[in-house]
Amino acid sequence: MKSSRTYPQRREAHRSVRPTEALEEDCCGECCSCSCCSRRAVCVSTLVLTGLALTATGVAVALFFGIPKQPPVSRECRTHQNGSGFLCDDRVTCLPPSLLCDGVHNCPSGADESRHMCSDLPNNLPSNLVFRCGNSHFWIFVDKKCNQINDCGDCSDEMGIYADCPPCGSQWWTCTPVEFQYCLCVPRSLCKDGRQNCYDWSDEYLCSGD
């Protein structure tokens, strides 16, 4: 009778896999989409590097095509005298142009004394606040135009088509002034003061004071 032999079962040559390792292999196939990857630092680094690369690309494109500039802040406004003015940052205060760059902060934020604006006058001023005199080397603030005073020195701010000034008001006497500071008229307060203020002496013989 043949004896029965018991043959030992053949062990498989592969090593056993721990459950956690299997889970890691299953979920970490695509590193950046796994939620249980033990190498999360690698995933985070990949995301950071990708973000930096996209940012650098965006900056390069912006530099190549040019970064659009912010539109300048509008400073135009009308003063209480219905003249051109300078609008402060509070968007309420409207200053007469002649108050700009005078060393006094008239705007709450000091915008009227801006270093950039005041460093190169009148080139850095809003163009609507500047009047160019007949002599191109001279200019005045526009609110000094048509004030009956010879601010330009050649009366171009009081006479001619560029100044376009109205006739002298009721407080002025129309004549050809003797004094350099006046152009088309003299104050009525100078009438009959015993001095010649008009070339034709009309301020003493025809004009009546206040």
UniProtKB/TrEMBL annotation:
<keyword id="KW-0675">Receptor</keyword>
<dbReference type="GO" id="GO:0016324">
    <property type="term" value="C:apical plasma membrane"/>
</dbReference>
<dbReference type="InterPro" id="IPR023415">
    <property type="entry name" value="LDLR_class-A_CS"/>
</dbReference>
<protein>
    <recommendedName>
        <fullName>LDLRAD1-like C-terminal domain-containing protein</fullName>
    </recommendedName>
</protein>
<dbReference type="InterPro" id="IPR057430">
    <property type="entry name" value="LDLRAD1_C"/>
</dbReference>
<dbReference type="GO" id="GO:0006898">
    <property type="term" value="P:receptor-mediated endocytosis"/>
</dbReference>
<keyword id="KW-0472">Membrane</keyword>
<dbReference type="Pfam" id="PF25241">
    <property type="entry name" value="LDLRAD1_C"/>
</dbReference>
<keyword id="KW-1133">Transmembrane helix</keyword>
<dbReference type="InterPro" id="IPR036055">
    <property type="entry name" value="LDL_receptor-like_sf"/>
</dbReference>
<dbReference type="GO" id="GO:0043235">
    <property type="term" value="C:receptor complex"/>
</dbReference>
<dbReference type="GO" id="GO:0042562">
    <property type="term" value="F:hormone binding"/>
</dbReference>
<feature type="transmembrane region" description="Helical">
    <location>
        <begin position="47"/>
        <end position="67"/>
    </location>
</feature>
<keyword id="KW-1015">Disulfide bond</keyword>
<keyword id="KW-0677">Repeat</keyword>
<dbReference type="InterPro" id="IPR002172">
    <property type="entry name" value="LDrepeatLR_classA_rpt"/>
</dbReference>
<keyword id="KW-0325">Glycoprotein</keyword>
<feature type="domain" description="LDLRAD1-like C-terminal">
    <location>
        <begin position="166"/>
        <end position="205"/>
    </location>
</feature>
<dbReference type="InterPro" id="IPR051221">
    <property type="entry name" value="LDLR-related"/>
</dbReference>
<keyword id="KW-0812">Transmembrane</keyword>
